[in-house]
Amino acid sequence: MCGKGFAPFRSTQRVCSVECSVVDGKAKTWQKEKKARKESMITASQWRKMLQSAVNSYIRARDEGRLCISCNRQLKGKYDAGHYYSVGSYPNLRYDEMNIWGQCVHCNQHLHGNLIEYRTNLLQRIGEDGLARLDSLKNEPLKLTVPEIKDLIEVYKKKIRELKK
To answer: What is the pLDDT of residues 14-25, one digit of tens each?
Structure first.
Protein backbone atom coordinates (compact mmCIF):
# COMPACT_ATOMS: atom_id res chain seq x y z
CA MET A 1 0.00 0.00 0.00
CA CYS A 2 2.78 2.42 0.90
CA GLY A 3 4.95 1.58 -2.10
CA LYS A 4 7.82 0.17 -0.06
CA GLY A 5 9.15 -3.29 -0.71
CA PHE A 6 7.39 -5.83 1.46
CA ALA A 7 8.48 -9.29 2.50
CA PRO A 8 6.20 -10.94 5.10
CA PHE A 9 7.82 -12.26 8.27
CA ARG A 10 4.93 -14.64 8.95
CA SER A 11 2.70 -16.59 6.59
CA THR A 12 -0.35 -14.69 7.86
CA GLN A 13 1.19 -11.23 7.45
CA ARG A 14 -0.42 -9.27 4.60
CA VAL A 15 0.81 -5.69 5.10
CA CYS A 16 4.01 -4.03 6.28
CA SER A 17 2.58 -1.65 8.89
CA VAL A 18 -0.51 -0.51 10.77
CA GLU A 19 -0.93 2.40 8.33
CA CYS A 20 -0.98 0.04 5.35
CA SER A 21 -3.39 -2.21 7.22
CA VAL A 22 -5.84 0.69 7.61
CA VAL A 23 -5.54 1.57 3.92
CA ASP A 24 -5.95 -2.10 2.95
CA GLY A 25 -9.08 -2.37 5.12
CA LYS A 26 -10.58 0.75 3.55
CA ALA A 27 -9.86 -0.58 0.07
CA LYS A 28 -11.61 -3.87 0.86
CA THR A 29 -14.57 -2.05 2.38
CA TRP A 30 -14.83 0.16 -0.70
CA GLN A 31 -14.75 -2.89 -3.01
CA LYS A 32 -17.63 -4.47 -1.09
CA GLU A 33 -19.60 -1.23 -1.10
CA LYS A 34 -18.99 -0.73 -4.82
CA LYS A 35 -20.19 -4.27 -5.56
CA ALA A 36 -23.36 -3.69 -3.50
CA ARG A 37 -24.03 -0.39 -5.27
CA LYS A 38 -23.62 -1.96 -8.70
CA GLU A 39 -25.90 -4.82 -7.73
CA SER A 40 -28.57 -2.44 -6.44
CA MET A 41 -28.68 -0.69 -9.82
CA ILE A 42 -29.57 -3.89 -11.69
CA THR A 43 -33.25 -4.01 -12.64
CA ALA A 44 -35.51 -7.03 -12.18
CA SER A 45 -35.60 -7.43 -15.95
CA GLN A 46 -31.81 -7.57 -16.08
CA TRP A 47 -31.79 -10.17 -13.27
CA ARG A 48 -34.29 -12.31 -15.23
CA LYS A 49 -32.09 -12.04 -18.31
CA MET A 50 -29.05 -13.17 -16.27
CA LEU A 51 -31.07 -16.08 -14.88
CA GLN A 52 -32.13 -17.12 -18.40
CA SER A 53 -28.49 -17.02 -19.47
CA ALA A 54 -27.47 -19.18 -16.50
CA VAL A 55 -30.26 -21.70 -17.18
CA ASN A 56 -29.38 -21.87 -20.89
CA SER A 57 -25.70 -22.38 -20.05
CA TYR A 58 -26.66 -25.21 -17.72
CA ILE A 59 -28.86 -26.85 -20.40
CA ARG A 60 -26.04 -26.63 -22.94
CA ALA A 61 -23.63 -28.21 -20.46
CA ARG A 62 -26.16 -30.88 -19.45
CA ASP A 63 -26.96 -31.84 -23.05
CA GLU A 64 -23.43 -31.63 -24.45
CA GLY A 65 -22.78 -34.68 -26.59
CA ARG A 66 -26.46 -35.67 -26.71
CA LEU A 67 -28.75 -35.60 -29.72
CA CYS A 68 -30.84 -32.64 -30.85
CA ILE A 69 -34.27 -32.92 -29.25
CA SER A 70 -35.93 -32.38 -32.64
CA CYS A 71 -33.84 -33.97 -35.42
CA ASN A 72 -31.66 -36.40 -33.42
CA ARG A 73 -28.42 -35.05 -34.91
CA GLN A 74 -25.37 -35.00 -32.64
CA LEU A 75 -25.08 -31.70 -30.74
CA LYS A 76 -21.62 -30.26 -31.29
CA GLY A 77 -20.16 -26.84 -31.80
CA LYS A 78 -22.80 -24.16 -31.38
CA TYR A 79 -26.24 -25.30 -30.33
CA ASP A 80 -29.17 -23.72 -28.55
CA ALA A 81 -31.15 -24.36 -25.41
CA GLY A 82 -34.49 -24.73 -27.17
CA HIS A 83 -37.80 -24.29 -25.36
CA TYR A 84 -40.76 -26.51 -26.21
CA TYR A 85 -43.19 -23.92 -24.87
CA SER A 86 -41.78 -20.63 -26.12
CA VAL A 87 -40.57 -17.95 -23.74
CA GLY A 88 -42.73 -15.31 -25.43
CA SER A 89 -45.99 -17.24 -25.15
CA TYR A 90 -45.33 -19.07 -21.88
CA PRO A 91 -42.90 -17.01 -19.79
CA ASN A 92 -43.75 -19.07 -16.69
CA LEU A 93 -41.94 -22.10 -18.22
CA ARG A 94 -38.88 -20.20 -19.37
CA TYR A 95 -36.69 -21.63 -16.58
CA ASP A 96 -38.24 -25.12 -16.37
CA GLU A 97 -35.52 -27.67 -17.16
CA MET A 98 -38.03 -30.15 -18.59
CA ASN A 99 -39.17 -27.47 -21.08
CA ILE A 100 -35.63 -26.73 -22.30
CA TRP A 101 -33.42 -29.15 -24.22
CA GLY A 102 -30.32 -28.99 -26.38
CA GLN A 103 -31.37 -28.19 -29.92
CA CYS A 104 -29.37 -27.59 -33.06
CA VAL A 105 -29.41 -24.05 -34.42
CA HIS A 106 -31.13 -25.22 -37.62
CA CYS A 107 -34.12 -26.71 -35.80
CA ASN A 108 -34.42 -23.97 -33.18
CA GLN A 109 -33.90 -20.88 -35.32
CA HIS A 110 -34.61 -21.88 -38.92
CA LEU A 111 -37.44 -24.35 -38.31
CA HIS A 112 -38.92 -22.32 -35.42
CA GLY A 113 -38.28 -25.11 -32.92
CA ASN A 114 -39.34 -28.00 -35.19
CA LEU A 115 -42.06 -28.56 -32.60
CA ILE A 116 -43.74 -31.68 -33.99
CA GLU A 117 -40.49 -33.65 -33.78
CA TYR A 118 -39.61 -31.87 -30.52
CA ARG A 119 -42.82 -33.13 -28.87
CA THR A 120 -42.26 -36.69 -30.13
CA ASN A 121 -38.74 -36.82 -28.69
CA LEU A 122 -39.72 -34.89 -25.57
CA LEU A 123 -42.31 -37.57 -24.86
CA GLN A 124 -39.53 -40.20 -25.03
CA ARG A 125 -37.27 -38.20 -22.70
CA ILE A 126 -39.67 -37.11 -19.97
CA GLY A 127 -42.59 -39.50 -20.48
CA GLU A 128 -46.32 -38.87 -20.54
CA ASP A 129 -46.41 -37.73 -16.91
CA GLY A 130 -43.67 -35.15 -17.49
CA LEU A 131 -45.37 -33.84 -20.61
CA ALA A 132 -48.72 -33.69 -18.80
CA ARG A 133 -47.00 -31.72 -16.03
CA LEU A 134 -45.65 -29.20 -18.56
CA ASP A 135 -49.05 -28.96 -20.26
CA SER A 136 -50.74 -28.27 -16.94
CA LEU A 137 -48.18 -25.64 -15.88
CA LYS A 138 -48.14 -23.68 -19.12
CA ASN A 139 -50.77 -21.18 -17.96
CA GLU A 140 -49.73 -20.95 -14.30
CA PRO A 141 -48.18 -17.61 -13.30
CA LEU A 142 -44.53 -17.38 -12.32
CA LYS A 143 -43.64 -14.60 -9.91
CA LEU A 144 -40.04 -14.54 -8.78
CA THR A 145 -38.63 -11.86 -6.52
CA VAL A 146 -35.15 -10.49 -7.15
CA PRO A 147 -33.67 -12.42 -4.19
CA GLU A 148 -35.25 -15.63 -5.54
CA ILE A 149 -33.78 -14.92 -8.98
CA LYS A 150 -30.33 -14.32 -7.44
CA ASP A 151 -30.60 -17.62 -5.57
CA LEU A 152 -31.57 -19.45 -8.75
CA ILE A 153 -28.62 -17.94 -10.61
CA GLU A 154 -26.32 -19.33 -7.93
CA VAL A 155 -28.06 -22.72 -8.10
CA TYR A 156 -27.46 -22.96 -11.85
CA LYS A 157 -23.87 -21.79 -11.57
CA LYS A 158 -23.31 -24.54 -9.00
CA LYS A 159 -24.99 -27.12 -11.26
CA ILE A 160 -22.70 -26.09 -14.14
CA ARG A 161 -19.61 -26.43 -11.92
CA GLU A 162 -20.75 -29.89 -10.82
CA LEU A 163 -21.25 -31.00 -14.44
CA LYS A 164 -17.77 -29.85 -15.39
CA LYS A 165 -16.09 -31.90 -12.63
So the answer is: 666 666 665 655
The residues spanned by each domain of the chain are: 59-163
Residues of the chain with pLDDT under 70: 1-10, 13-27, 30
Report whether 156 contacts 59 (CB < 8 A): no
Q: Which residues neighbour 71 within 8 Å (Cβ) at sequence distance 6 or greater?
A: 104, 106, 107, 114, 117
Name beta bridge partners: 101. Answer: 82
DSSP string, the chain: --SS----SSTT---SSHHHHHHHHHHHHHHHHHHHHHHHT--HHHHHHHHHHHHHHHHHHHTTTSB-TTT-PBP-SSEEEEESS-TTT-GGGTT-GGGEEEEEHIIIIISTT-HHHHHHHHHHHHHHHHHHHHHHHTTS-----HHHHHHHHHHHHHHHHHHT-
Q: Could you tell me what percent of the chain has a pLDDT over 90?
A: 72
Backbone angles phi, psi at 83, to 5 degrees: -95, 135
